[in-house]
Structures are given as C-alpha cells and as structure tokens.
Amino acid sequence: MTFEYILGRMLDRVPDTVDKREGSVIYDALAPAAAELAKTYMELDVVMDETFVDTASLQYLILRCKERGIEAQGETAAIIQGTFTPAMLELTAGTRFNCDDINYAITEKISDGVYRLQAETLGTAGNKYSGTLLPVETVNGLQTAEITGVLIPGEDGDTTETLREKYYASIDGESFGGNVADYKEKVNAIPGVGGVKVYPVWNGGGTVKLVIIASDCTVPSEELVQRVQTFIDPEANHGEGLGIAPIGHTVTVTGVTAQTVNIQSNITFISGWSWEAAQSQIEDAIKTYFAELAEEWEDAVATIVRISQIETRLLDLPCVLDITDTTLNGQAKNLQVDADSIPMIGTVGEVGT
C-alpha cells in the first residue's frame, strides 16, 4: 500500500473525461489523502508487529507478559564482601569505596574486618570477585581494603529476547501450586539466581530439593543460598507454608558445587611461542568453555566436558599450531561432571609435567 499505488487506485475512480495529470486539480486534491492513507497503512503494520509476542518490541512485550503474570526484571545491584585491616577498625554504613570505575557503599558489618558493600552502579558491572578498594573519602586508620567475593551477583535487566523466552517458557511449562514449573519460575525471579534444578520427593513424601546457580553462572554464596531458602521455605518453619512453598512441602535449598578439572595436553606452538608465554591464553580459552557449560547447567541432563571442544578452542588460538594427547583428570576421555556441579579449571599443563 504505497503512496503511488493508493493514488493510482483513487485516480482510476475518476472519469477519463477529467484531467488527471500531475498538477491538475483532481490530482492535487487526491494526493494529500493518498499520502495520509499510505502513512496509516505503515502504522497499521507497526500495530500488527506489536500485537504478537514474536515481533513485539520490549515496551509492548512487557504488556503481553503482564497478561500471564510475568514481570520484567530490572537491573539489580551487586552485593560484595570486603575485607579491611586493621580488623578492629569500625566502619560506618554508607562509607564509600571505589574499585576501577565502580563505587561501593558499606551496608552492614559481617564480622570484624569484614563488611557487606553494595554497588552504586546497577547490573553485572559490579560483580567483582577481587580487587583493591580505595576510599572515596579519607578513612582514618585504614590500612588495606580488598574485595574478597560476590555475595549476591548484580543482574542486567531483561532484554526483549530474555523476556520473550520467559513468555514462551510460561506456556511450555504451566506453573501451578508448587509443581516443578512453579518452583523454577519463582526461584529464577529471585535477584542473584541464574538457574535452578528441582528434585521432587528427593527424601521422602513432601520433600523438595532445589539446587541453584548464581546469576553470573558461578557457585552461589552461602548468603544467596540462605536468602533463597528463607524466601521459599524458612528453615525454622519447614513445611508450614510461611514461604512461597505450599503447606506440606519441606524444601531444602543448596548451591551447585565446583568440580575441579585438571587438563594436560601435548601442544605444538607457533614459532616464537612457548608454554610460559601462551599459558594465560590457553587458560582463558578453557575458562570461557567452562563458563558456557555453566550457562547451560540448568537445562542440561548431564554436563560433559569434551576433549574435542577443548582442543578445538585451543587450536583457534594464534599461538597454537597443533594439539594431541589431551587428558582430563588423568584420563584420555570426556569427563561427565556431577549433576549438581559445574566444571572449574584446575591445573593446566603439558603432558609429562
């Protein structure tokens, strides 16, 4: 429905005895209306796109999701653990520190010399597992300040694609009254949680086990595990329905564990390279592969570390010419990681070392 097509149809309805050439009275009278109609058809195309989940933009996809009780998740702030010396130094809530380009503020004391800090920048940028904290303002008596872990990972808000996946997931697995889909939906909505596996009747009737992974696809902190436990089924009142778990469900929440994978390979390097020079690149490539496996953990029946994948990724490095004889934990075969574990890189070395 272009301007030319619409105008042509309109002029076809005018008798040929009338001058219809461009610049004529009838042409100039019909052209503005044809232009407006063409614009209307373009806007109708947009309306059609925004009507369906497959093509809707984020603004209208949020409205479609609300129809199914799905809320778009906004950005959350990372909560980290900071260790300060001297340990007896008392720091007040609100004291601000900087690491790289992120500022953190103390929220509460955990123990002597150990404090909880919250990132002022929302999203995953605040997920720093280590680094030096520099006081924004002078802190008398402070000697050292270090980040020693992420307690609750920060999350980026839902994108159009992640929200669309949530919509379809709500259809594929209808959640209701404490079924598996219901537990997955509720647990995944908790800030800091990146995935969950649900084990019903794992220790007798009425028992449910939830194994969670942090939103950055790492082993969750004990604080995050306890936060989820309290939200789902408080330990002090198991099965009483004081959390979101149905009455009679005794829920145990645990976190994934890290299973160490030691790797050895016989690597032929490009001229000018050696193991010492290339080791950091090799380890980074393996860590990237392991991170991808961790991202797939929630939906994977079994997590398998494959020798072929490791060798392929190392061959993509500019310093590696060839690779053979790769072993995982001393065996020349793929390694199946425990169901509730994710792979963690251990020692990486050459065969014979």
From TrEMBL:
Protein family: Belongs to the Mu gp47/PBSX XkdT family.
Residue span(s) of domain Baseplate J-like C-terminal: 261-348
Origin superkingdom: Bacteria
Protein name, entry field: Baseplate J/gp47 family protein
Positions of the Baseplate J-like central domain: 175-254
InterPro entries for the chain: Baseplate_J-like_C (IPR058530), Baseplate_J_M (IPR058531), Phage_Baseplate_Assmbl_Protein (IPR052399)
